[in-house]
Specification:
Elements lengths: L3 E6 L10 H8 L4 E2 L9 H13 L4 E7 L1 H10 L6 E7 L7 E2 L2 E2 L24 E6 L7 H11 L2 E5 L6
Parallel strand pairs: 1-2, 1-3, 3-4, 4-7, 7-8
Antiparallel strand pairs: 5-6
């Protein structure tokens, strides 16, 4: 597919005016932001919204995702692999930090199942890259590399840039 659409998928709480995703959205012709309820990171709902956005595109799709948006993008993209040109997953969030109903609370750590089991664990059928930092508080670099290995993603390691 020669032409494609870029879908921007922010993470939990969205991406404001000064976020790199907002900048890149303005620099990629035709880029579209996938809207979510930014205060309720519920994987099933977010993935459904991304699937709907993919379905509404007449061209193939590049997903440029951040944080929790990475998890939802991977979950959605595996169901639409024929329309996916590739994924750019920047600073993915640790799936253990989320339950099927949202952000894991401090008193719920380990009591409720995480969203990890809702994510694919096999090589993706399209190219993907994970951009991760050595000091990201939302996902340890070692875990990002493990997910990259599962998905067959190239992992780009950045030194001490936080949650990018």
């Amino acid at each position: 597919m020669a032409q494609s659409t870029t879908l921007i998928v922010p993470g939990y709480k969205g991406s404001g005016e000064t976020h790199w995703q907002t900048w890149i959205e303005g620099h990629i012709p035709g880029a579209q932001r996938v809207d979510q309820n930014w205060e309720e990171p519920i994987l099933a709902r977010w993935a459904d919204n991304i699937r709907l956005a993919i379905d509404q595109c007449s061209k193939s799709v590049w997903l440029v995702a951040h944080s929790f948006g990475c998890l939802a993008s991977v979950a959605a993209a595996v169901d639409r692999s024929d329309k996916i040109s590739g994924l750019m997953l920047v600073a993915p969030a640790d799936p253990e930090r989320f339950t099927p109903s949202g952000v894991r609370s401090a008193d719920d750590w380990g009591a409720t199942e995480s969203v990890r089991g809702l994510l694919p664990t096999k090589r993706l059928k399209f190219p993907s890259i994970i951009v991760a930092s050595t000091d990201d508080p939302w996902m340890q670099l070692a875990k990002a590399k493990l997910w990259g290995e599962c998905w067959g993603s190239k992992v780009l390691e950045l030194d001490a840039v936080g949650h990018i």
